[in-house]
Amino acid sequence: MINVRKMTILALLAAISFLLMFALEFPLPGFPPYLKYDPSDVCGLLAAFSFGPAAGFVVELIKSVLFFLSGKSADGIVGATAALVAGGSFVLVAGHVYAYGKRSPITALFAGTIVMTLGMVSANYFIFLPLWGLPTSQIKLPLVISMIGFNLVKGIITSILTLVLHQSLKGKITLTSMEARR
Fold first, then answer.
1. CA–CA separation, 159 and 153 (whole Å)
2. Rounded to a whole number, what is the largest CA-CA distance in the chain?
3. pTM score, whole prediction
């Protein structure tokens, strides 16, 4: 049976996530201007912590599709896909560590940040930057270092925001045990 409450919460988190990405995307000082931060992954992390990693990924997927369809993605489908890979890897790993490893949210967010950072450096180096017209032969160490730094800072900021919201919402957006059995 379809759980209407869960679907409603996930739809709201996806909508809020899209709005955060749409309205609050900005470059971080000290990093190249094309590396932009937005707090939208917080919604995917809250979904992953409340309903499991797959639910968090669904929020990330919906957000990325809506962002692409909105026309605001300056980098088109490549940028929207990069956002999905970054957010999706963060949310899936953090959600998995939190749910199945019975770990604290801090441990889960740390693991998600590390995997997202390593994944995005690799994905940018081998996939996304070449798709944007920058061959791997032209990608030098300073660019790789800035990608590492940006993703670590992004993960830390997003983790802090998630921890604050997770603590204040703990138990309020999850399903009750009776609803979960249905």
1. 10
2. 57
3. 0.88
